[in-house]
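agent> fetching stored inputs for the iron/sulfur cluster docking request
agent> found them:
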Amino acid sequence: MGEQSRREFMKSCLYAAISGFGAAYLSLFSRGRGQAHTNPFHHLMNRGADGGAAAKTALDFEPAYMRMHENGELRKRGEELWNIMKSCRLCPRECDVNRLQGNEGFCQASSQLEIASFHPHFGEERSLVGSGGSGTVFFTNCGLRCVFCINWEISQGGQGKSRSIEDLATMMLKLQEIGCHNINVVTPTHYSPHIVLAVDMAAAKGLRLPIVYNTCGWERLEILTMFDGIVDIYLPDFKYSDGTMAAKYSSAARSYPDRTKTALLEMHRQVGVAKPAADGLMYRGLMIRHLVMPNRVGGSREVIAWIAENLPQDTYLNIMSQYRPMYKAFDYPEISRRITREEYAEVVDGARKAGLTNLDIQGYSF
Ligand code: SF4
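agent> prediction call returned; pasting tokens
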């Protein structure tokens, strides 16, 4: 999350605190747009010069989950995921704890859903933000637990409130109502059963936005295959190429590179290459994020080489420049500073030389 997006996030939290949970989204929306749309697809009908193509995209779009909702498969899939919490193996930690009995795993989550905030987010990728924002839901807790996490209060500090699955479905519908272009579930893995069941409920009440699965990338293949036909856009990190680094900075997650590579291949198989539609918005595809870290800690060169060799050359890759030391990062001198202009340029140059053509390159804001 960059400086700008963090400011947006902090403002959002402030609005939520002042306005109360139910009214938070309206306060946020009125800041930038004056009034809420009553038609959830109003923003998709604002077509501009290339009206024909954009209109076709907006009117033709149907989220992947609709077919599964209509034939009852979506609820069934949610219940299957729910039952996995009896001996939880939703993520590669494979804790085997019974979350349904109130026990917590490494992620600190029981089966009780906890959410820190929901709001339109204007700091995400341009094709997700559009004019109405990406409809983000920030989930409390995390299975990866990085020492440099910028959202550590939420992911590791327990910030958030207990919510029901019905509450989550209502949030999704509110985000659609106020003009967001997608439902962006942030750090979703440990609450994936709740999310799938909420999407099923919300779809019955008119949810038609694509689901953005915004994950650290460290996923189990067996769980990812259960999202096939549900998720439209995968937004995974690819943080490290070296398991030693993953183990050091992400709570002994030595399997991170191997698990993430397998996950990326599966995500690509499900949704393909991400390309914005004629209206500039993303509706489907794999969008990879790589955060450039100081002193080549992330192994950017190897990350890029693997993508270039194993996925199409036009695979979307956001090369992120906004690393800054947070949380426990100051305990590790090699990651206790921001990156330099030269470090970022080296990675961008390497991606171009590797032949990657669908790069999201950020300004040198450091
Ligand atoms: S989701 Fe949580 S409880 Fe389940 S395996 Fe992962 S860390 Fe353990």
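agent> quick read of the result: The longest strand covers residues 114-121.
agent> awaiting further instructions
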